[in-house]
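Format is chain and fold; as here:
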Amino acid sequence: MKKWLYFSTLIMAVLISIIISNSNLTLASEESNEVNLTREFLQEATAYEENGIVVLKRERAVSTQSIQSEHIQDVVWLLPKEECSSSDLLADIKSFTYSRGSGHKYEEDSDSSLSVKAYTTVYYTTSKQDILTYYSITSVQGGVVILDSWVTVPNHKLTIGQVGSRCFDQIAYYTLTQSSWSCTPPSTWMAVTDGDGMGTVGCFYELTIKRPNGYTWKLELSNNLFSNFTTDF
């Protein structure tokens, strides 16, 4: 939880005021003088720092019986405690109001002889920062299904990558021992955007298939949320 949400420990005083933006207008009777600090309010409000105080200001229309539309401003002042600066508070508000989501992407493929099928699912979260979407892999699950009893899979390995312009080394390698598996990349990895043309987020699954006579061949499966490179990890 973001520390600014805990008003009892963070904020010394919260002053709430609703200001009529045009002095000759009056509040509609059903409007309340209380502002709730919901995600919707924080997304719609303009936040800025003024003399060590964080100001949240939102303009909105109110319903009246008049033909002329009326607008009011909701203004909230947040005064941080000593251990938290106004810039920290602004940063947390911005982080909290990013649009967040999650999803998954499934891929499967078989070798040319239809002896083995491989499959992977990449689970991820997204966050919106300005106009860019950032992706973070939470886990990759997958496995191998042997369709021909005459073949075996002596080894298979997985590479997970979350590579971007600021983090070229976010690649993890896994040697797999089970026919079905789940791998989780480091939680310290930075999220990566596809908006700068420098990122690849996904996984690469490689299997070795073997016949009783010793003949071997490979099956490779890529599952990328996006990729700006022509080669796999």
